[in-house]
Predict the 3D structure of the following.
Amino acid sequence: PASTSSRLVGSPTRPRPLICRSTSESRAREAPMKNATGEPPLLLLEEVASTNDELIELAAQGAVDGTALAASRQTAGRGRRGHSWHSLPGRHVFVSVLHRSRLGAPQLAGLTLDIGVAVAGVIDSLGLVTTLKWPNDILLGGKKVGGILCELVDSGAGPSVVIGLGLNVQAVDG
């Protein structure tokens, strides 16, 4: 059985972001909003319904700018227009990052494409050649390997954007 305990990793002499590892969404909600150095936390979960949904909830609870939540499996992931994102164990990485912005929706209109360019650049630096399909798909060899979902939320502390990325990290046969 999976453990639901969280473990904090770090050292007072070598500050690094707080890492909370858990198999439970509810344990992630109990994590501190920042570590002793003031850095935003990185929350790691084995499974979550949706990294974006979980981070939207944490934003409402006061999570700081830059808080990131990653999972190796989503049970209710989604893309644009409510399309579902199917997750196979060990084949995907899902991460969402909270950005507390002073900009409004009109100024954030190109954010998804900006994030896509950045992610494609990282993948390309590994010697692979990616292309972007407007507005949020990352393609490798003409096949979709990733998607980006940016969601504007009002968490009570002004507008925020939750930036979600789903990425296939292992080839799927067929």
